[in-house]
Specification:
alpha+beta, 4-stranded antiparallel β-sheet
Amino acid sequence: MATSTFKRRHLNAWVAPDVERWIPADLWEALSDESAPLRPDDVVMIGGDGSRSYDTSALAWAQRALDGRLDVACRVGDSGSRLQNL
């Protein structure tokens, strides 16, 4: 188990967001395609994580692209704000 994961799960400690990322942020950003539309006849999977106070809420959705990739988008916000683009 990664040190940051242990600290987060067992010590309830905040860890730096850039520590031990699975995919580097610049590589993830390079995969982005803002022009990928949601098509009305395709299946869309939706997931959400709500919060009551002092936490973060998220809404995410995914759809299979015509070339087989999985297009994913989400909105994230804290308990005092509206969900924002991620």
